[in-house]
Specification:
This protein has about 240 residues and is α/β, with parallel strands linked by helices. It has helices at about 15-30, 40-55, 75-85, 90-100, 120-125, 215-220, 220-235; strands spanning about 5-10, 35-40, 60-65, 105-110, 125-130, 140-145, 160-165, 170-175, 180-185, 190-200, 205-210. It is built from 7 helices and 11 strands. The longest helix has 14 residues, at about 220-235.
């Protein structure tokens, strides 16, 4: 049995991260793992530091489903005072040390938008949001095509994953990631990578571009991907 830290929270202007984080925790708990939830990056970083120092139970993997960034621009004025976030050096160090030292990371949905004052976060995840370039259409029906059917994260999943969510496009994706699934942001677009597997030093990383809400997380094929992704980043053998 492993212990997984779920970090879920941030600005609620477009997502109910409390509910989505709880839904992800339920999927992971059903595998038999112990799950802890934190709702702020600095709290998650402190927990990882406690584990590394031996003053608390070890953490084997963590999942990030949230949105923390500086919230610049007029569109976010109503939420900026309460939710704008800049990433402290201690939090950066805790995350990079954990993953780089061999911990597993599953970065979901909005994770690529997080920490816009910390460019190296994209190196950890394997890709990042490019302000002024990246975008997504309104929430709606998505057909995602599995392109690495033998990879343990997506093995056994239908070749077309159908769910209601958002497709993030024109992300800045690192060289060397293994793309697992692609989808079209718009009908006339080229296919965009929406899931990938990645290594950050000794750590295993999966990016899952979906997880906008509880319904998406509980969609059976998507839940299976989450299960298998957690299993893979924990270096266990997927069923």
């Amino acid at each position: 049995m492993s212990r997984v830290l779920v970090l879920a929270g941030g600005s609620p202007h477009a997502h109910d991260f409390d509910s989505s984080g709880a839904a992800v925790a339920d999927v992971i708990s059903a595998l038999g793992h112990d799950v802890e939830i934190r709702n702020h990056p600095d709290a998650a970083a402190a927990r990882l530091d406690e584990a590394s120092e031996g003053s608390a139970a070890p953490i084997d993997a963590f999942v990030l489903l949230g949105l923390w960034w500086r919230m610049t621009g007029d569109a976010y004025h109503a939420w900026r005072d309460d939710y704008a976030y800049s990433t402290p050096a201690a939090t950066r160090q805790a995350f990079t040390s954990f993953v780089g030292g061999g911990g597993g990371l599953m970065a979901m949905h909005t994770a690529t938008i997080c920490f816009d004052d910390w460019p190296e976060w994209a190196d950890v995840v394997g890709g990042g949001w490019r302000w002024g370039v990246s975008s997504h259409p309104p929430f709606g029906h998505v057909n995602a095509r599995i392109v690495a059917a033998d990879h343990p994260v997506v093995k056994g999943v239908p070749r077309v994953l159908e769910l209601d969510d958002e497709v993030y496009g024109d992300l800045d994706i690192s060289d060397g990631v293994e793309v697992l699934a692609v989808a079209r942001r718009h009908e006339t677009d080229d296919e965009q990578p929406v899931m990938w597997a990645h290594r950050f030093n000794a750590g295993r990383v999966v990016f899952d571009g979906f997880g906008h809400d509880v319904v998406s997380i509980r969609q059976p094929a998507h839940s299976r991907i989450i299960e298998q992704a957690v299993t893979w980043i924990l270096r266990s053998e997927c069923a």
